[in-house]
Known about the structure:
Number of helices: 3
Strand content: 35-45%
CATH topology of the largest domain: Glucose Permease (Domain IIA)
Number of strands: 26
Number of domains: 2
Helix content: under 10%
Amino acid sequence: xxxxxxxxxxxxxxxxxxxxxxxxxxxxxxxxxxxxxxxxxxxxxxxxxxxxxxxxxxxxxxxxxxxxxxxxxxxxxxxxxxxxxxxxxxxxxxxxxxxxxxxxxxxxxxxxxxxxxxxxxxxxxxxxxxxxxxxxxxxxxxxxxxxxxxxxxxxxxxxxxxxxxxxxxxxxxxxxxxxxxxxxxxxxxxxxxxxxxxxxxxxxxxxxxxxxxxxxxxxxxxxxxxxxxxxxxxxxxxxxxxxxxxxxxxxxxxxxxxxxxxxxxxxxxxxxxxxxxxxxxxxxxxxxxxxxxxxxx
Length: 297
């Protein structure tokens, strides 16, 4: 059974990603991260809250020491639209709940403010993590979520690997390229050399997705093969990502509909400044060592 997140649900968010995380649920295509425009945790499902829980998370100097789980028993109508069995539940993470067990929620309701969780990498923006469990399955344990598909088209954006830094964080920079072809409208993502939209952390996470590819189809970016299609998406090859000739951790790939879309280059302790020109090159892995850094969803 696979859950298909309806288009009118996904359109409430500015960005989404199924694979841009190191955690198993994302690696297997069994969760989706949804990025609202503000810091409100917007509900992507309709139903009744059955449980909220606070959990400890990895100790990061930039993040909260706890995270939160909100369990929602899905309304029958929502289940029919998403192709999931009635009685299934949704699991929402990274939102400080202002809802309580017994509360009814609708799509678009505010569940609470999003939190900067220690499960995140430093470069990851606040978001709503969404997964699903079959009726009767344990909603609290970390494993056991159903596969999730997103029922929206994603347009590929060609990119030559170059751009100018327009945003600087301590562990990443955002470039002004590629530019979104339809800001506020269609979801779009950086495409492979073959024209396939890409999702996932290249190559700091295990794999990616998007596109309906035959098993074993090779995928390349910036002239270098970066992966091969597998049952769940794309398994990344062992490659080195270089920015202006120096190794970086990777490039974050996701689908977005906002106007400030641009490539996000991840490198802890970088020395890039706003206005710098950056050129990305990808090489088959050799003797270069990528910089170490934290990982997160």
